[in-house]
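User: Hi! I'm working on a homework problem where we have to compare a predicted structure to a textbook description. Could you give me the structure for the chain below?
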Amino acid sequence: MIPEKPINTWSANAKLMLSGEYLVLRGARSLSIPLKFRQALTITEHPGIPALVWKTIIRSQHWFDATFSLDQFVIANTNDFPTAQILRDILVAAKKIKTEFLNSNVRYEIVTDLDFDINWGLGSSSSLIANIAACAGIEPFELFRKVSAGSGCDLATALSPAPIIYQLNGEGFQSEKVNFFPPFHENLYFAYLGKKRNSSQSVEAFNKLQNDDMTPEIREIDAITDGMLACTELREFRRLMREHENIISKLLGIPSISEKQLNDFNGDIKSLGAWGGDFIMLATDMPRDYVISWLRKRDMNTWFTYKDIALNPVNNS
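Assistant: Happy to help. Predicted structure tokens:
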């Protein structure tokens, strides 16, 4: 079917948060890296019965579809109701901010296209919010705050062309583009554990912690984040990784991944994002062949080097 109007497309980055998970919610500084992986959103307008037809493609494979009414985004049909409900909440929030959003008496088709597996995490929700905000012509953080209790670090990274240091500050936030391409970058690996965690549930659980005064831990994480950014030696970076894991382990009351299951790695491992799933960062001075063999023995077949996935690790702007 020939569209009535030209195609409009937006895209946003995936991300990996290297430091500050959980405590970024309380104001700690976080080092976060935009990735070469992206999520794109394309909208076209077609003749036909007014509605919103949504499709999601993941790595060239159809994954999700839904049809919504245009007035209240009522779900007419879908192959995944929970996902459709989450999407509806974002669309309704966008419509409340800008009533003209998807307001023409036409049939809209929106296609989102991810070049990474949605089960990897990597900020698929935040890149979606960024794209919907761009499509609606609204401020992305205004939309984010209506649909998420997160820190906003994922969204800031999704919109950044380079690594950032992110920090909540009073009612707002500070996001600063930085360089992060250490001399030992070839000694850093990132592997998917195969157990995606729900970020929203992890945020909710952390916010329920009784310890309201986390000032000492926040200061320690700030120092670690700054140390990671300035680090030029692998040994020092590994020490910072261990310190970070110890702080979060004590705060959450659960053992680190190195303590409970991956304690035979010749190097150091740090959880990224929600503990117990998603990705881990590995740092070692062992040869690449050792790392590959170790990962394969544990059925971790999705892995990358830092250079493989980091988007513009040197900020030239």
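For your comparison, note the following. The first helix runs from residue 81 to 97. The chain has a mean pLDDT of 91. Good luck with the assignment!
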